[in-house]
Design brief:
The chain is mainly beta. It has one domain. The chain has 2 helices and 20 strands. The strands form 2 sheets. The chain has an 18-stranded antiparallel sheet that branches. Strands 2-12 form a two-stranded parallel sheet. A hairpin with a 2-residue loop joins strand 13 and strand 14. The longest helix has 9 residues.
Length: about 300
């Protein structure tokens, strides 16, 4: 369950239970060995370091729950349309913090691991193949406590409207690309996670945001040299991934400005050849004014 905080490290009041495949967020506080000499060979008691909250969350790609995660990455969306509605997310100047909570039901008494001051530090996806289409979300936070009750005793449970790999389409440079094997991307939100302050009890005093990094990889069949020519010449291009479950269930990710890294195909054997190109997304003068744009179409009026 997650809930947006009114201010950093302030417990949320309203929560949403979201579908997840796994949640690796946890609290850590390392013990370090002291170097104090005592006149014997016995070690002295260790000392505790700063507290860390971090870990990955894997969520199924869908069009109903994903907007809650996108809002934590980009802020509130711009919504257009009328059932279905399209919610558009772009890089903003700030990122909201949220409370994350895990409930453990198989103990003698239910316990709730509560993480405060959480912020999304990274987001990645790989589209293609016949596996489950998922989003990988990296989270960092401030502190962890083990509670006897939830911060929201009656949260909303968000349904899942899954979208799948076989429903994906790809547009490159404004035209349909039909020979791609896989496209993947990774967004690093440029967080400063080293803000441990004196008097802060070993937890992060804040998590300032920085420059976002947008990278990815495109693998296509080597049937012509169009993409390789772009990479060699340093030509600006674009990519748009669209996964359409139905007319009212669409997940779309667009990189309006990008450049490919030069990488000529090798000949590993008699099998078909691939063009394997890394890329970097950026913003210079694109009309969207964002290095990455995410859009979700569904029947929800607002988020």
């Amino acid at each position: 369950m997650i809930g947006e905080e009114s201010s950093y490290k302030t417990v949320a009041t309203a929560g949403f239970i979201l579908p997840v495949n796994s949640c690796g967020v946890k609290g850590l506080q390392a013990l370090s060995t002291a170097q104090t000499l005592t006149g014997t060979r016995n070690p002295v008691a260790p000392f505790a370091g700063n507290r860390d909250v971090s870990g990955p969350i894997v969520v199924p790609a869908d069009s109903l729950a994903m907007p809650y995660w996108l809002q934590k990455m980009f802020g509130d969306p711009a919504t257009t349309g009328s059932d279905p509605y399209t919610h558009e997310y772009k890089i903003g100047s700030t990122m909201p913090s949220f409370t994350l909570e895990e409930q453990f039901l198989d103990l003698a008494t239910d316990k709730y691991a509560r993480f405060l001051g959480c912020v999304v530090s990274g987001w990645s996806m790989a589209v293609g193949g016949d596996g489950e289409l998922v989003s990988n979300i990296d989270v960092v936070g401030a502190s962890e406590t083990l509670e006897n009750s939830s911060f929201d005793a009656d949260p909303d449970t968000i349904s899942l409207a899954r979208v799948e790999n076989f429903q994906a389409g790809l547009t490159e440079g404004g035209g349909a690309l039909s020979n791609a094997r896989e496209v993947s991307f990774s967004v690093n939100f440029g967080l400063d996670t080293d803000q441990f302050v004196i008097g802060g009890s070993g937890v992060r005093g804040s998590i300032p945001v920085g420059i976002v990094g947008v990278t990815g990889n495109l693998k296509t069949l080597f049937e012509d040299s169009t993409l390789l020519d772009k990479a060699i010449a340093g030509t600006e291009s674009s990519l748009k991934i669209t996964v359409t479950g139905s007319a009212s269930s669409i997940l779309e990710v667009e990189f309006q400005e990008l450049r490919y890294e030069r990488n000529s195909p090798d000949v590993p054997g008699p099998q078909g050849l691939l063009v394997d190109l890394n890329f970097q997304g950026y913003y210079t003068d694109g009309s969207e004014a964002s290095a990455i744009v995410a859009r979700v179409t569904n029947g929800v009026e607002s988020y």
